[in-house]
DNA sequence: TTAGGGTTAG
């Protein structure tokens, strides 16, 4: 009785089978909604019965009479639905049991339409095998069996197979399966799995080929959000087995995805933009964001912030402006980070008042957007104020901070203020702030330490700095490479090279390894002190630990060798530099040209200059200055003037104050103060400001010719320009004017200087 | 959001 009932139910089911079949061939994840409940129950009872009969001894025997199992499964004129066979198979104990069932179905079915059922059964076998040990080999073997029996894989079976083979790293087998899958069965889920597997196996080009087909406008398998996740994730991945997706591809792909209404989420978009900006590809980042905007994707402040940061670093203020305008137009609400970026940029370019205005508007919401500042923003402004010497205003911002909830001054706040006071030479106030932060339990860090040490060193208190370091070390704040760089530099500056070397050794011994800057600092100090052997040995140490010399460091060495008259060593260094692939710059050539011309080797100096030009470098004002100076030194002022005229006209390098100083000084010393005065007029015309060196040179020239009126005129001009006299000026003028009884003029000059100093 | 270095002509 059970059988007959089942047979009739089967008939009922068969009516639905075309629909079920269609589902099978295009089935994607997630699976289609479950059938009706009564159908469910019918199926369940059929499956239960089938499973019971499969335990019976006559299953798999080739009896001539119809068995109950055959009756159940094949009684009517057509086979039962593939869905049923698959569900029976799924409940078998193993893939080998399932394979036996497959063979049973194959040999017992008389129907022509059994093929879809067999495919479906095979899918279930794959499912079982995929959960068994050694699944990839089992699946591969089963795939062979299916092919042997001409049973096409369902798309889900193919998907499962590919995923499993991919996990086992079987690249070639994956490619074979992909090639053999019936193209008409492929769906988006299948393509997603293929792409994912290919990426993981490092087959980027194969993955992109599949993706390209998905992205075609008339694609049978259009991309969905999962496709997006796979691709955008792959774009951001750091470690690649194959090649990475290049920037151009990224922009193109995001744009094509957009045509299918698939977009990176805010996090992915922001990450992609950040990645481009870090590689200085703000143009691509810009295109990326705007593609998403144009095709209607969601763009939030975070992504815009990433781009604003990149544009700011590249100094592209025009695009920054455009982007903020677009944000307004598109109703993308700026947040505290957006304002932070803008305010930071203004502070860094010393436009602190502009920054304060933006800050005020933001806090009041007077421009339509009200945002509460955070500690970072306060710190940015405080730093900005301190960097332009407005520490007191910085302190009043700290008071504002205190009055705002959850915005207490922190270590960074104090560090900025301490640096401000140190830079202005108010070391005591910096120390007071240091004491205050300790009282408030805002803990100093190594930056606090270094800021104070640097301040002390720069204001002649090296010993206090060392004492302070020792004190802090004993309290647990250890110095780092920066600390030692500061101290080494400070000792080099006061020509205490031994002490500098001592600190260098001390840091290595105390387990703080020097970084490249520490090496560069010491090399420079030694080179300037003329200790080239020591400098060379530090260079060797630097190389031993794996650092490289950069252009400036090579220049320092070349300059050092020149100073010691070791031209051969200088050339050797230049050669090494070129061989190491470090391009000499104009400073390198200028150093050599200066040395060569000063030692009278003008032919070689000009040859080096030609080489410089050949290498694509333009002679600079320093190049011409070096030559002019050398010609003047040997009394060939005409030659110097010739170069001077040439640089302004032919080479289009405008002369600066130093150039004029060299010439004016030489002309005066050469008894040609008239010509020197005409050069001073020339400076006025060209807008080149004279400095104290200019005035000292011309005053000496005027004194030698006793041209008093001209001197008075220039003294007035000095006061006007707030150019402070130095001891040379005073010496020359005092001696001369006293001798000629013009002490009144001198007194007036000193008073004028005092007035101009106080007003300045 | 905070700290360090080195080069050429007077």
Automatic annotation (TrEMBL):
UniProt protein name: Pentatricopeptide repeat-containing protein
Q: Cellular component per GO? A: mitochondrion
User: Domain of life, per the record?
Assistant: Eukaryota
Ranges of the PPR repeats in the UniProt entry: 187-221, 300-334, 335-365, 374-408, 410-444, 445-479, 480-514, 515-549, 550-584, 585-619, 620-654, 656-690, 691-725
**Keywords of this protein's UniProt record, alphabetized?**
Repeat
Q: Which family does it belong to?
A: Belongs to the PPR family. P subfamily.
Q: Which NCBIfam families match?
A: PPR
User: Which Gene Ontology BP terms does the record give?
Assistant: mitochondrion organization; RNA processing
Q: Which residues form a coiled coil?
A: none
One Pfam family linked to the record:
PPR
Q: Which GO terms describe its molecular function?
A: mRNA binding
């Amino acid at each position: 009785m059970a059988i007959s009932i089942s047979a009739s139910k089967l008939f009922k089911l068969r009516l639905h089978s075309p629909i079920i079949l269609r589902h099978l061939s295009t089935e994607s994840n997630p699976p289609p909604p479950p059938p009706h409940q009564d159908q469910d129950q019918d199926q369940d009872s059929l499956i239960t019965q089938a499973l019971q009969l499969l335990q019976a001894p006559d299953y798999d025997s080739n009896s001539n009479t119809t068995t109950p199992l055959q009756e159940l499964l094949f009684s009517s004129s057509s086979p039962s639905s593939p869905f049923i066979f698959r569900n029976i198979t799924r409940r078998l104990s193993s893939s080998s049991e399932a394979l036996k069932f497959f063979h049973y179905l194959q040999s017992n079915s008389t129907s022509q339409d059994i093929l879809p059922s067999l495919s479906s059964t095979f899918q279930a076998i794959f499912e079982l095998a995929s959960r068994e040990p050694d699944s990839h080999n089992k699946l591969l073997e089963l795939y062979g069996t299916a092919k042997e029996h001409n049973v096409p894989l369902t798309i889900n079976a193919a998907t499962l197979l590919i995923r499993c083979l991919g996990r086992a790293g079987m690249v070639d087998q994956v490619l074979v399966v992909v090639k053999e899958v019936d193209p008409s069965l492929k769906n988006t889920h299948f393509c997603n799995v293929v792409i994912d597997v290919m990426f993981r196996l490092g087959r980027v080009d194969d993955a992109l080929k599949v993706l390209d087909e998905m992205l075609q406008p008339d694609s049978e398998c259009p991309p969905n959000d999962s496709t997006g996740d796979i691709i955008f994730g792959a774009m951001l991945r750091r470690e690649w087995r194959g090649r990475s997706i290049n920037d151009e591809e990224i922009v193109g792909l995001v744009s094509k995805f957009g045509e299918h209404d698939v977009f990176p989420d805010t996090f992915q978009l922001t990450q992609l933009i950040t990645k481009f900006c870090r590689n200085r590809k703000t143009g691509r980042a810009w295109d990326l964001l705007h593609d998403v905007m144009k095709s209607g994707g969601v763009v939030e402040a975070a992504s815009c912030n990433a781009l604003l940061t990149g544009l700011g670093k590249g100094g592209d203020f025009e695009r920054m402006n455009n982007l903020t305008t677009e944000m307004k137009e598109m109703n993308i609400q700026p947040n505290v980070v957006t304002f932070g970026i803008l305010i930071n940029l203004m502070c860094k370019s010393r436009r602190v008042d502009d920054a304060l205005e933006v800050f005020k508007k933001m806090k009041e919401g007077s421009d339509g957007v009200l945002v509460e500042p955070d500690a970072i923003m306060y710190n940015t402004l405080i730093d900005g104020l301190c960097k332009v010497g407005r520490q007191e205003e910085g302190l009043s911002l700290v008071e504002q901070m205190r009055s705002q909830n959850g915005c207490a001054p922190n270590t960074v706040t104090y560090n900025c203020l301490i640096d401000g006071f140190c830079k202005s030479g108010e070391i005591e106030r910096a120390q007071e702030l240091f004491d205050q932060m300790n009282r408030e339990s805002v803990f100093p860090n190594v930056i606090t330490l270094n800021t104070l040490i640097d301040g002390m060193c720069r204001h002649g208190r090296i010993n206090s700095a060392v004492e302070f370091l020792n004190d802090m070390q004993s309290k647990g704040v250890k110095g780092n490479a920066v600390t030692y760089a500061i101290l080494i530099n400070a000792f080099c500056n006061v020509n205490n090279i031994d002490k500098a070397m001592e600190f260098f050794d001390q840091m290595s011994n105390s387990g703080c390894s020097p970084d490249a800057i520490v090496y560069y600092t010491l090399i420079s100090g030694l080179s300037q002190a003329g200790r080239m052997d020591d400098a060379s040995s530090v260079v060797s140490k630097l190389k031993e630990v794996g650092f490289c010399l950069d252009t400036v460091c090579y220049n320092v060495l070349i300059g050092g060798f020149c100073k010691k008259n070791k031209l051969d060593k200088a050339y050797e260094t230049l050669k090494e530099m070129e061989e190491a692939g470090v391009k000499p710059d104009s400073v390198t050539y200028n150093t050599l040209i200066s040395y060569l011309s000063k030692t009278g080797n003008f032919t070689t100096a000009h040859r080096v200059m030609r080489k410089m030009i050949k290498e694509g470098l333009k002679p600079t004002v320093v190049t011409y200055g070096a030559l002019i100076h050398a010609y003047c030194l040997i009394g060939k002022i005409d030659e110097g003037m010739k170069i001077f005229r040439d640089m302004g006209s032919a080479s289009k390098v405008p002369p600066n104050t130093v150039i004029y100083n060299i010439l004016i000084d030489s002309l005066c010393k050469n008894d040609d103060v008239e010509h020197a005065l005409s050069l001073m007029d020339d400076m006025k015309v060209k807008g080149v400001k004279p400095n104290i060196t200019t005035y000292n040179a011309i005053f000496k020239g005027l004194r030698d010719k006793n041209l008093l009126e001209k001197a008075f005129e220039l003294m007035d001009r000095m006061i006007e320009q707030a150019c402070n006299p130095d001891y040379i000026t005073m010496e020359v003028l005092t001696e001369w004017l006293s001798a000629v009884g013009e002490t009144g003029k001198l007194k007036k000059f000193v008073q004028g200087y005092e007035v101009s100093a106080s007003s300045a």
